[in-house]
## 1
Amino acid sequence: MLTPEGRRVFPKLTVKENIIIGAYTKSKEELNKAFDTAFSLFPKLKERLPQLAGTLSGGEQQMLAISRSLASFPKILLLDEPSMGLAPNIVDVVEEAILKIKSQGVTIIVVEQNIFMAFDVAEYGHVLETGRIIMSGPAMELLNDEGVKKAYMGEIKQ
């Protein structure tokens, strides 16, 4: 299941309706479980249920987009730029949710430019440059690689 870049919630539908759309092939029991999952990951969504998705903040929309994707109970979840345009405190909330989802046995593929967030949640990574994989390996090894540091964190002062 894909959680697209830029969130892409259905702006004229409520938070509740967006989650229902994610679970459209599921039973009522599974739909209730989808709501429970959404609220356990993102408690703020519970108070926003009747609100139109287009009126949510960017962070709340990202929480909703992830919840909508999870409502289908995927085995693999692709998150495309989940931290894009979010305040640092919301990036932390999203990162924590990704780690919880991962701990529940869902395979997660993250496409992310925020190297710190990406390597915090990843076990293995690929570094791309102009569409080509230039490095691959365990996330912590990549994070500590001098070339990656220079490219993504600026010149390193000794």
Note: The helical segments are 15-22, 28-41, 44-48, 58-70, 88-103, 115-121, 139-143, 146-153.
## 2
Amino acid sequence: MHEKNISQGKKIVKPANECRYPKTDLVGQRFGRLVVKEFAGRGRGSVLWLCSCDCGNNSIVSGSNLKKGQTRSCGCYHKEFRIIHGATKGNKPTRTYNIFHGMLERCYNTKRPSYKDYGGRGIYVCDEWHSFPVFRDWFESHVGEGEQIDRIDNNGPYAPWNCRGATRKEQARNTSRNINITWKGETLCLEDWAKRIGLSETTLWNRIRRFNWPIEKALTTPAFRGRNQYTK
């Protein structure tokens, strides 16, 4: 009777290994450097597996990450990659490596928010720059301290012939929103024309790109307020 009262109203929690075994058994299979040793339970909707890595470490990895190829080591591969390519400084990625990695992510990782503005519109990285040592040699000889890598043609690829070192201000001038405008024999970027005539960049950009005003009309019409400012 005493034992019965103790058990009433209490939820019995099974150990992880006693959870419902998955339909697909991955034990013994290899994924990169990882070999699955045993089922490790479930967590946050994922099937978990205990894996041994070729380096000797053990780690628990979700089955979906193993099958998709998203996890192929206990973390030792990335650490070795950075060390082998001279991409670490004080056990942290160098500035050059971060720029290299970010460049590839923007062009090829569809899950990155910035992908739509790069890979999503055809921007790619030239074949030779898929090698970090090659990119590092170019970057360290062409990009100064405080500068970032900048594409000369904003619609062109990341390649030696289309890239240079540029400050953040110079980069801002070279966006798809900024354009060069020639009027009366003088060529300035949209930002400079806007400052000269006393308009906001947004107003001038809308006049030219969105509402297709002739250049002369866009540059000579004074700023005014109201919904009809672009149809005057």
Note: The chain is about 35% helix and 20% strand.
## 3
Amino acid sequence: MDLKKIFYATLALATLLPFAWAQSAKTPDLTGVWGPFKGGKGPNAKFAAPPAGQLVLKPEYAKPYEARRAQEAEANQRGEQLASSGAQCVPYGVPTMMSVAVYPVEIVQTPKQVTIVSEAFSEVRRVYLDRPQLPIEDVPPGYYGRSVGHWDVDTLVIDTIGIKTSVNGYRGMPHSEQMRVTERMKLVAPDILHDQITIDDPVVLEKPMVYTLAYQRLKDYEMVEFVCDNNREFIDEKGVVRMKVKDK
């Protein structure tokens, strides 16, 4: 037995293994434009987002929330629309900006940062990959908060804090300054992306709210400029959006 040959062969193998692992565990590329994906019937149904969890607010927050939902339903029946962020040209913020009607989002991925742009209202959020998260009390509240992320093998995990309380959460839910949004973005197929969103707020929620958004890659799509410049509508004293009528 040639121990010298065995030694060098083992050394070479040990040198190549990390390289082989790095090649097989290559970071997924999420760059591109992604539109809402419903799944529908047929083979693509398996890629649809799973049902959302149950939104359970603490009693002191549940009552006004349900009252607001009832007002919205009544207004819709009358063909009216109550005031909302969109009607007032106010950014949707995180997490709502990740899914606004049929509008897509664009992801730009670099080694140190992932930038997400929503076509609706041209909202932009930045996810830092090269720095740690700060304590919540050190983050000035804003529409998009402070997002930091890391790769968990093939999943981009995003932690967002510092979202001001005037920004609505899932389906208009209220929240406190303690709200934390955790996202797990993963390609479930080459052109299908899931974003599992967990909202945790010990002040407002009885338990974390979990739901998933599904997207389909839109190849060769060019994002359209969307600027909120609304001079046709106003909000009356009852909070209903009305159309301005020119004086005759």
Note: The CA atoms of residues 149 and 158 lie 4 Å apart.
## 4
Amino acid sequence: MELRQLSDLSDADLDEVYAAPSLPWLRVNMISTVDGAATGPDGRSGGINNEADKRVFDTLRRLCDAIVVGAGTARDEGYREASKPLVVLSRRGQVPDRLRDATPGSVLMATCAGAELLDETRALLGAEHVLVLGQQRVDLGRLKQTLAERGLTHLLGEGGPHLLRDLLAEGVTDELDWTVVPRLLAGEHARITSGPPVDVPLRLGSVLEADGTLLGRWYV
């Protein structure tokens, strides 16, 4: 497979490289160092990203209908209202602080019937923006289907590692977009997946390179 240079591609070229083969489609975008650290010394993925990763990140956000993210990642990474709807997953039904004053409809909460903060979140976001999908945990297959029924058929997952693991385990993920930055950190850092073991084969779709950074597109 040809290794293409990111600098040779226009924004229109990138849109073509990362076009969804079919709909509905759920891709997850993650980043790590060469030795597998998914966060930098500051405990955030933003501590290891670079210009090349940011360019593909912007492309994926431009192409998607909605962004799917775990509540913990949204809190840790300081998520704010985005240009596309944010779908936040939380078993407790807790809206991250920086999203509590978001424009109505710009944040959806995916949670479960047993969520302790369900009533509060319905009052905060509006009941129509709170998706109750399961009793004690969020049914990720139903989440994908429910969002598609709302016209959100091209989904971009942005982690964290527990959510990626669960999406893979439940067979919901169609694609992994994984940036490997040319750094070694050692120490105790999260990986791009976390949780009980899963064994999911991947098929390489494309690889881009930019000053040692590798940006791979893998089909599940």
Note: The radius of gyration is 17 Å.
